[in-house]
Amino acid sequence: MSAARPLTVLRTVAALAALPLLLTACGYGSDAEDDPTRAEVAADAKKLSASEVKIGYFPNLTHATALVGVQEGLLQKELGGTTIKASTFNAGPSEIEALNAGSIDIGWIGPSPSVNGYTKSAGKNLRIISGSASGGVKLVVNPATVKTLDDLKGKKIATPQLGNTQDVALLHWIAEQGWKVDAQSGKGDVSVVRTENKITPDAYRSGSVDGAWVPEPTASKLVADGAKVLLDESEIWPDKKFVITNIIVSQTFLKEHPDVVEAVLRGSVKTNAWINANPDEAKASANKALEKLSGKALPDEVLDPAWESITFLDDPLASTLDAQAAHAVSAGLLEKPDLKGIYDLEPLNKVLEAEGRPAVDDAGLGVR
What we know:
The chain is of the alpha/beta class. Helix content is about 40%, strand content about 15%. The longest helix is centred in the N-terminal third of the chain and has 22 residues, at about 5-25. The radius of gyration is 20 Å and the shape is globular.
C-alpha cells in the first residue's frame, strides 16, 4: 500500500460505517443543486401555459437525454418562451421528494424510485410519460479474487443503495443462482455492501469490496482502476434491453399544463434522435455538461466504454419495469404493488405520431 493510501482508506471505512445511518435518514443522496446551464430564449418567443418548467435529473451518463437536451438547447427550443429551471440530484429518493414538494415538475429518474414513489403515494403523485435510456449497468470485479461468476460466493459486492435499481438486480441474480442473502442487511452467501457511487472506487481500491453492480460511469471508473467486467446486465434481459431511465411528471402539472409536458417530450424525442445520429458530438456534449456540474470531465478511458453501453430511446420498456418491480417483491424489498396507472403514454405517442413513428406500449399499466 502506498504512503498516500491510509488516509483514503480511513475515509472510505468511515463513510461505509456511516452508510446505514445515512440510508435511514434520507436514503443516500443530497439536496438538489441548480444546473447553471441556460439556453437562450428569444425575446418574442411565445410562452406556453406555464412561464417556467422545473426539471430534474442526475449528473450521470444514463441521464444524457436531459444533459444534452439542456446543453444543446434542444429542450428549450420546443418550449418557446417557457423557460427551463434545471436541478440535479444524486439519488432517486431526493428527486421524488422534490417532485412531491413541487420543487420540480418533470424528472429523469430510474425505475425503482419511480415504482416506490408511485406506490407510496397510492398512485397519486406521478406518472411515467416516456423512456429515456436502456442499459449502462455492469457487474465489475477484482480479477485477482473473482475470475468467474461462481467465484462471487463469499465475496463483497457493492450496489449504490438499499432497494435501488441495481441493488434489486443483484439480489435477483443472486437468488437465481440458488444463493441466499438477507435483503435488508445484505448478509449471506454474497455480502451486498450498499455504497454511494462516488465512494465505490475508493472502496474498491482499498479492498473493502471485491466488485460492484453499478451504473455508468462508475463501472468504467472501476475498470480504469483495474477491475474487469464480469457481466453486462443487458445480457440477462430479453432483447438485451431494460429501462434504466424514465421521464416522470407530477400528475398535477400534467393535468394543468399538458402543452408544456408535450413540449418537453418533443424536446426529449428530438434530443434522443440527435444523440443517435451524432453519437460522438453527443458524447462530447454530455461530458461538457458533466464538467460544468462536477468541475471535472470524464477521461476518454472512462467516457468511451460507458457511452457505448447505453442505448438512448423513447420507449419506456414498460414490461421490464414491471419485471423489476416483481424482482423487488421476490427479494422482500417491496410488497406486491398495483402499478396500474403508473404510465400515461398518450402525450408521447402523440409526439411520436407527429414524427411518423410507431406508438409505444405501456404493458397494460396505463392510466385507467
